[in-house]
Amino acid sequence: MALTKRQKEFLDFLSGFLEKHGYSPSYEEIAEGLDLASLATVHKHILSLESKQYLKRGFNQSRSLEIAPKFYEEQRQHRQMPALARVEVPLLGRIAAGRPVEAIQGEDTLNFADFAGDPGTFALKVRGDSMIEDHICDGDYVLIETAVSARNGDIVVALVDGVETTLKRFYDEPGDRVRLQPANASMEPIYVPKTSVEIQGKLLAVLRKY
Description:
CATH superfamily of the largest domain: Umud Fragment, subunit A
CATH architecture of the largest domain: Ribbon
Oligomer: single chain
Strand content: 25-35%
């Protein structure tokens, strides 16, 4: 989930204060430093950033705000990317649209200016025809938003048994099972224990090169 401009300013202020003083600012210092109208506004920003997993805080403790590693990792990724490359996303390998296959990470990139603002976005190249009825064909590129959960019917990148990835529609099934459903009437769904599946992302877009 992307940060708003004001949330980014909030985290930048907090990071600078922590680096300078070695402890977190009070709500009053945050309000003054960011020219916020009230402490309620500070509290609202904190709750929102906690929900996005950018911020941690200790309850019933003063000066207990802590920036989560997620923020620092995103900052590191942005610093490593040249300005002109920020409209690109990493091409991490090939994804099975048939049976699961081992995913191989690469160093190539694809340019998606409309989507690349989120550092959690990446691209995969499809292999196979199991999603053809959803108009995802062999050789297509799929743009994926990093995610750890999915709703029934979402098209997801699913890691199976920790080593194999596949692109399928996700469905919860009775008995703690998951159904990974192909969009091809000639193919059978894949049923696996819920504990054997890790959601790694959800489909954002499909690109086809002719």
